[in-house]
Amino acid sequence: MPAKPAVKAAPVAPDMFAGHQLLLWAIEGLSEVVAASITDDVYGTTQKRLSEILSSLVTLLETTEYFTKATISPNSGVAGLANHQTNAEHATALKLTLKSALYRITSAFHVHLNAVKLSDSHKARLQRFAAFAE
Q: Does residue 104 sit within a domain?
């Protein structure tokens, strides 16, 4: 497994999560559709893209977790600190939404997760979700 880079100070963008609520709703809606597809999608349209959907959600979760661990630069000042705090709150909301979405999908597809083509790291992460150990 490749080593993860050290977490270092990240520059703070003022509107990094502008419009984040729409993203949260989109993730929730996507996970609801995917979870319901196991019983409602008679043609298997959603299942054809399941590996891509799961991989994207896990990658976004990993990226969000990395962001929330990053520190703020000491030279950011008060405005930078306020922006970082706001971005951290929005990132935490995104992380929680992604975890809920992944729990929803893995609960629906738990028996079939091994059949989905994913990287070993993503498959291991999803198995932890399926075991409610995440």
A: yes
